[in-house]
Amino acid sequence: MSASAALMLAAEGGIIGDGRTGANLALGVGLLGLAVGWLALARAGGRISTGNARTGGMSAIAVGVVGTVLAVLHVATTSGGPGTGNGLLGAVVAIPLGLGAVLLGRRALTRARRADRPAGRVSV
């Protein structure tokens, strides 16, 4: 199975459940991306000392992009309007969640880069 076919199958809800499954999957992935981005941002700010802020930031960006792509595919392949039980509103809510995860991951990467930089250069 190709990657595009797997994404289309996941966005449509797959073979299990109803049409809301794809939207719930996109919501879950978006929330996971927000949590990873928030933790990476806390690591970059020095509030949490475990883990690597750069790895967490890149992970949040990747998970956020996947969540956004799943949500957009679900919106594009959904038939009917809101309130029909097909998960359209859930997918619409999942789009900003995924984008928020991308933004948090980017901010964590920026803060981690600033923290790695020396405060001042002394030339000898």
Characterization of this structure:
The chain has helices at residues 3-11, 20-44, 53-77, 88-116. It is mainly α and 124 residues long. The mean pLDDT is 79.
Task: Write out key terms for the chains shown.
4 helices, mainly alpha, 0% strand, 124 residues
Furnish the topology, listing elements before pairings.
Blueprint: H1 3-11, H2 20-44, H3 53-77, H4 88-116
Radius of gyration: 18 Å
Tally of separate helices: 4
**Helix-strand makeup class:** mainly alpha
N-end to C-end Cα span? 60 Å
Query: What's the multimeric state?
Result: single chain
Shape: elongated
Poorly predicted tracts of residues: none
Along the chain, the helix and strand elements come as HHHH
Average pLDDT figure? 79
Specify the biggest β-sheet.
none
Give helix % range.
over 70%
List how many beta strands DSSP finds: 0
Strand content: under 5%
